[in-house]
Amino acid sequence: MSASDESRPATTAEYVGGNSHAFGPGRHLRSRSKVLPEHARGHNRALVLQTLYHAGAMSRADLSRETGLTRVTISDLVAEFIADGIVIEMGVRETVGPGKPPILIDIDRVGHQIIGIDLSGPSAFVGAVLSLDGDVLERREVARPEGPDGDAVYAAIVELARQLVAASTQPLLGAGIGTPGVVRPDGLVLSSPNLGWTNFPLEAKLSADLDLPVLARNDANAAVLAEYTFGDAKADFMLIKIGRGVGAGLITGSQPLLGSRFAAGEIGHVVVGTDGGPRCACGKDGCLEAWLSVSRLRDALTDEPTARDEILRDAGTRMGIAIAPIVAALDLSEVVVSGPADLLDGILIDSAIETLHARTLEGVFEDTLIRLTRQEDIVLRGAAVMVLSAQLGVS
């Protein structure tokens, strides 16, 4: 929910059942800019919603103590949120002793829903209606058009999105899309060869077609947000998403790192080693994606089943070679990997850890971890975080 009245969705009619789910200590994506007086109200709105989202139901007095805002400010903001249908009163808290029991308030976690779409799958585009807590409520998918036909791809996305809109049961806060390729912060896809897009205004076009707020980001950048908000990640980490291709998202100092060309994390087409290697779709030999993509690994294991350990160990070594300078340059705490556990967990990740430690400064990076994410639907859930962040200031 943005601060402007014009972009607020319709209010909910009635709260149906409470949701006590609350996340760990409130963390938010840190802004690089100083909060100016004219931006203070928007900052306070986001701070209150962020606190409620992560801490769960609390009284207005509790909220004042947690945020450091005055009770008058909290009262005004909460009244505004209730009028907008964002926050609800949950009833009174049981107390012992004299005095009026406080009324608990919380974000109306079931009063709005979010659409998430993942375009990174090898054979289908997958979408879901999600709760504000990132839970998948309804799932749909459409076949991925064959070949890099940009028009056919977009038509399939519109079909999927409309199915999801029809499946939603509450007012929609917005839609988030994770797509392969280089994506500008305004949702313009600068380049996505596999989808047939160059300078394609995905966010603006789909927002107009659906009459909904739409956010479009690179799929790995969406996934890293899900790991940050819903997972166990620290404030400085990289998420490597391994599927049809290989890409990465980065968060440093609790801030997403996009880069000057919006291509931070595009590690799939970095050549790893000087010994050649498999031919990559980009035309080079030995790109990380050519060694590590799911299709390449499965094909190699099918062709040489007796060499399974060697193939996985070599792929892990290549991943370690690629990420070691990134870990050292950014002083990352951990690397999280998203992809099929049967391929990645065990030999491959163990080999990547061994290579990472061998190629970074001894005694400094020895505690840097590489681990598999425990999250399913990580791009869909990241798409939900994108909408929460843009519309409510919550992450």
TrEMBL record:
Residues 1-27 are annotated as: Disordered. SUPFAM superfamilies: Actin-like ATPase domain, Winged helix' DNA-binding domain. Coiled coil: none annotated. InterPro entries: ATPase_NBD (IPR043129), ROK (IPR000600), ROK_cs (IPR049874), WH-like_DNA-bd_sf (IPR036388), WH_DNA-bd_sf (IPR036390). Pfam families: ROK. This is N-acetylglucosamine repressor. It comes from Microbacterium oxydans. Belongs to the ROK (NagC/XylR) family.
